[in-house]
Amino acid sequence: MGTVPAIQDSIYNFVSPTLVDSNASGINYSVFIITAHTQNPELYYISDPDSGYSVDNIPPETPYDLAGEDIGGDVLLTWQIQLSYPDFSYFAVYRDTTSGFTPGDVNRIGTSEVSTYTDSSLAVGTYYYVVSAFDVNG
Q: Which InterPro entries match (predicted)?
């Protein structure tokens, strides 16, 4: 995993990768053992096993360049995003008649796994949209 230089301190820290992130479905523990070596190759110390876990607390990037195009009464929405997240899940699309609205369940109109969405069956009027990206952990 890694090495931390000895500096005669009482506490040492090391950030280690884990095999899987913990999420709403449960905590996924990884077990760690620490070995301390001395200048004498025959004298070393091994800790008891202990465990830790990581949490996926890095949200996907916010979609940008949201644009809408009138396609025969429907609105074709397109947007851009850097999909460099291995745990990306979907986009949520929100619509309201008020500019600057807060997206939520009440104005969520659908989801998409690609960077387009067609909003159909609209009444004549002005609509505002927001798109959010979600990963497998929400």
A: FN3_sf (IPR036116), Ig-like_fold (IPR013783)
